[in-house]
């Protein structure tokens, strides 16, 4: 949950279409692998759906460890979108502030596909 590579990102419809044209499944990719299929990071944008600053603010006001874990579980959403979609979010004032991320994406015309299920994490303690 805390490691972005341990969660599958969502992918916008537009990004999925562009990636499919070059034989890439963005649901399986991370920011670290991006330069393999998008060498200059010019086409795709790996995005925190809930901006990190909002997650940090929520963590700072959490009153228990359980609340912190829940904040991270709910708030850590990653998505691949196109650079054009990112520009639309920014133009609408949603670069760093998104009180309702889903509404911001809808307003910008960004449609996210459902994510793959998160990989099963094996508990080393049993």
Q: Which key phrases capture this entry?
A:
6 helices; four-stranded mixed β-sheet
Helix-strand layout with pairing:
Elements: E1 10-12, H1 13-21, H2 34-37, E2 44-48, H3 52-61, H4 65-75, E3 78-82, H5 83-91, H6 101-107, E4 112-113
Parallel strand pairs: 1-3
Antiparallel strand pairs: 1-4, 2-3
Descriptive report:
With 126 residues, the protein is an alpha+beta fold. Helix content is 40%, strand content 12%. The protein has six helices and four strands. It has a four-stranded mixed beta sheet. It starts with 9 loop residues before the first strand and ends in a 13-residue tail after the last strand.
The chain-level mean pLDDT equals 88
Strand order of the largest sheet: 2-3-1-4
Shape: globular
Largest sheet composition: 4 strands, mixed
Tally of contiguous helical segments: 6
Helix percentage range: 25-40%
Tell me the number of strands.
4
**Radius of gyration, CA atoms, in whole angstroms:** 15 Å
Category by helix and strand content: alpha+beta
Per DSSP, what share of the residues sits in E-state strands of 2 or more residues?
5-15%
Quaternary status: single chain
* SSE order: EHHEHHEHHE
Distance between the termini: 18 Å
Weakly predicted, low-confidence segments: none
């Amino acid at each position: 949950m805390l490691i972005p590579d341990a969660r599958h990102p969502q992918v916008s419809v537009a990004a999925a279409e562009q990636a499919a044209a070059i034989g890439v499944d963005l649901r399986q990719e991370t920011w670290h692998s991006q330069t393999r299929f998008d060498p200059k990071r010019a086409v795709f944008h790996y995005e925190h759906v809930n901006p990190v600053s909002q997650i940090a603010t929520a963590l700072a006001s959490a009153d228990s460890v359980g609340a912190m874990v829940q904040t991270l579980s709910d708030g850590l959403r990653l998505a691949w979108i196109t650079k054009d979609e990112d520009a639309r979010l920014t133009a609408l004032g949603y670069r760093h502030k998104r009180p309702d991320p889903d509404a911001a994406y809808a307003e910008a015309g960004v449609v996210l596909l459902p994510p793959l299920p998160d990989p099963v994490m094996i508990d080393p303690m049993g």
